[in-house]
Amino acid sequence: MERPEAIQQIRDACRIIVQQFMRIHPAVPALQHPETQDEFYKTLHQMTVELETLKKKLGKLEREDSSTVL
Q1: Band of pLDDT at residue 65, cut at 50, 70 and 90
Q2: What is the C-alpha separation between 50 and 53, in angstroms, rounded?
Q3: Sign of the C-alpha dihedral, residues 32, 33, 35, 40?
Q4: Per-residue CA distances from 66 to 3, 4, 30, 61 (Å)
Q5: What is the pLDDT of residue 69?
Q6: CA of 30: how far to CAs of 3, 6, 23, 56, in Å?
Q7: So where are the chain's domains?
């Protein structure tokens, strides 16, 4: 697998993960347990931040690749 394919595969996986997070979020209130709900919201937020960090690193890597082509 070449770097561009790896980057695309990771981006696709990140998109799927984010979509699943969006499915979890609306179900949290139905847990009807404030302590657990707070922990879910906090953890979902942290995980989203981590995914965004990964996506930014991929973007940086892509920019480095495109600048070496010039």
Answers
A1: confident
A2: 5
A3: negative
A4: 12, 11, 47, 9
A5: 59
A6: 42, 38, 13, 33
A7: 3-69
